[in-house]
């Protein structure tokens, strides 16, 4: 949990007292490769801070998997909309490597928010960061070229090409595998 502590200190400047209170509502959970953190149709009741490994979010669209995000070490994975509204998730989040995650249980976390203004403020800052990244990604993916999307991906997740199969990256970028190979080979 040391990485999470550093992340929170850098993001929200949580005091030792706040950290101590927060740690009491957190759990460590291991997911094997292929295991789901969240399935389509399930209500998201947890926020996952990825300590080791990575997972991906994807839609099952008929006979096609459409990747929408990858979550690596020191990133949060969840379906915020599902968690906030209490509705079933539209997509899956699946471990693509063995994962160790710190699990923030929604009910325990919200209870702590009601008892600690400091932890509530920290939660809001973390959510603002998550939502800010999602908005930036949505903007890039709606209005920019395939090359610009590729460059953005490499900038925010530099190890993505080492760890993710190109077929998943192509789906994520919304381009064909051949187009991705052409862009990728032009980099070399």
From TrEMBL:
What SUPFAM superfamilies does this protein map onto?
Answer: cAMP-binding domain-like (SSF51206)
Check the record and name the Pfam families matching this protein: cNMP_binding
Matches recorded under CDD domains = CAP_ED
Occurrences of domain Cyclic nucleotide-binding (ranges): 10-53
Its protein name is Crp/Fnr family transcriptional regulator
């Amino acid at each position: 949990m040391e990485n999470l502590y550093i992340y929170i200190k850098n993001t929200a400047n949580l005091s030792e007292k706040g950290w101590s209170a927060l740690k009491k509502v957190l759990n460590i959970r291991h997911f094997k490769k292929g295991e789901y953190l969240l399935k389509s149709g399930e209500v998201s009741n947890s926020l996952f801070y990825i300590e080791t490994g990575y997972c991906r979010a994807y839609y099952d669209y008929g006979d096609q998997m459409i990747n929408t995000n990858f979550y690596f070490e020191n990133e949060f994975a969840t379906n915020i909309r599902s968690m906030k509204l209490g509705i079933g998730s539209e997509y899956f989040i699946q471990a693509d490597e063995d994962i160790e995650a710190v699990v923030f249980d929604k009910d325990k976390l919200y209870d702590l928010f009601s008892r600690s203004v400091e932890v509530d403020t920290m939660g809001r800052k973390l959510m603002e960061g998550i939502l800010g990244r999602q908005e930036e990604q949505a903007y890039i993916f709606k209005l920019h070229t395939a090359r610009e999307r590729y460059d953005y991906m490499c900038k925010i997740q530099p190890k993505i090409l080492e760890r993710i199969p190109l077929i998943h990256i192509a789906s994520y970028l919304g381009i064909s595998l051949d187009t991705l190979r052409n862009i990728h080979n032009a980099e070399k």
